[in-house]
Design a protein that fits this description.
Length: 331
């Protein structure tokens, strides 16, 4: 059975993009993989997180993943900082990765913008920690949204250079599992920007804890053009907001975009948004309700994460110890 690793940053409440790009896939991959799912709190602090918020978001995310269908009794769910192997391997990778490789990372450029000098060095070496997350478990498959593709290519470069430098086939190559539908869900306020849990505007995203009223309001206010839904997919090409709403509908209703257009062509956004609201509420609202219930028992959640960390540690520790020996550290 192949091992899967994937992670999510507890830097806010997960949104619909996280769900469609990653979480939904994680749930179905559990059937035939050994899965390790990680709340990457060390990644989260590469940009400032108020400590109490980080703690609250980490617990909320644990609850959301369980409410979405992650089975912590059969698979592993834990927070990254609880397993020190991640930090140790990340340091080795800081010394393997070339600066030129990091300079090409588009996500750093997007996040840092023109103000590079004022960002943390953690944000810059973030992809090395991400490679360490995966390779500490020698995981071979990584389900992510499209925005993480470049980071996974870098993880493969790092694994290859490590193997080459130390003369052993130690780390495997990893395969990105990117969904075919809604691999990049866009903001409800701007169809050219990715939907993100850290966007300053809460109206730009549907959070997995939003109730039916909040979902309806956000979809009603979502930016659109003044046209109607076209008959053909090609006609959505330069209508980013319309394309995004149709893609969300298609992904949640398990249809392709053309099938959605066949059903709704000629409709204005008023009726289409009402239909979309029904589809989103049906998928998301039960997750929010179950999350609230799970958050009522914090001790239980902490216990699940603690046990997950112990099981994660049992896999990662021997792998990272071996990597340290290969490097020449006295053990
Ligand atoms: P994060 O927390 O930004 O997002 C978690 C997952 O959700 C996906 N995603 C999206 N998919 C589609 N449309 C969107 N708008 C959207 N926004 C987010 C992301 O692609 C991701 O799969 N660096 C990672 C976390 C990480 C990780 C790892 C992932 C750390 N170590 C090791 C895989 C393996 C991140 O910031 O995800």
């Amino acid at each position: 059975m192949q091992r899967i690793f994937s992670g999510i940053q507890p830097s806010g409440v997960p949104q619909l993009g996280n769900y469609l790009g990653a979480i939904r896939n994680w749930v179905s991959l559990q059937a035939d993989h050994e899965c390790v799912f990680c709340l990457v709190d060390m990644h989260a602090i590469t940009t400032w997180q108020a400590p109490e918020e980080l703690r609250r978001h980490t617990l909320t995310q644990a609850a959301i993943l369980l409410a979405s269908g992650i089975d912590a009794s059969r698979h592993i769910l834990f927070n990254q900082s609880a397993v020190s192997a991640h930090a140790r391997l990340a340091w080795i990778f800081n010394c393997v990765t070339r600066l030129g490789w990091l300079n090409r990372m588009t996500q750093f450029k997007d996040k840092a913008g023109k103000d590079r000098e004022n960002h943390s060095s953690g944000l810059y070496v973030y992809p090395n920690l991400m490679a360490a997350d995966i390779l500490a478990y020698k995981a071979t498959r990584v389900p992510v949204g499209e925005d993480q593709k470049q980071h996974l290519e870098l993880a493969n470069d790092i694994a290859q250079k490590f193997n080459h430098d130390y003369g052993v086939e130690f780390f495997p190559q990893v395969e990105a599992l990117i969904p075919t539908a809604a691999a990049r869900v866009m903001s409800l306020r701007d169809g050219t920007k990715k939907m993100s849990k850290s966007d300053p505007s809460a109206q730009s995203r549907i959070e997995l804890t939003d109730d039916a009223d909040a979902i309806a309001l956000k979809i009603r206010r979502a930016k659109t053009d003044t046209g109607v839904l076209p008959a053909d997919v090609e006609e959505l090409a330069d209508r980013p907001e319309a394309r995004n709403l149709v893609a969300i509908y298609a992904a949640l209703a398990d249809m392709n975009v053309q099938q959605v257009l066949d059903q709704h062509q000629g409709q204005g956004f008023g009726p289409f948004k009402a239909a979309l609201t029904d589809v989103v509420v049906q998928a998301i609202a039960p997750i929010g309700a179950e999350t609230t219930r799970l958050l009522g028992d914090e001790a239980h959640l902490l216990n699940i994460l603690r046990q997950g960390a112990q099981r994660a540690q049992a896999i990662a520790e021997p792998i990272v110890s071996e990597a340290e020996k290969l490097v020449g550290f006295l053990k």
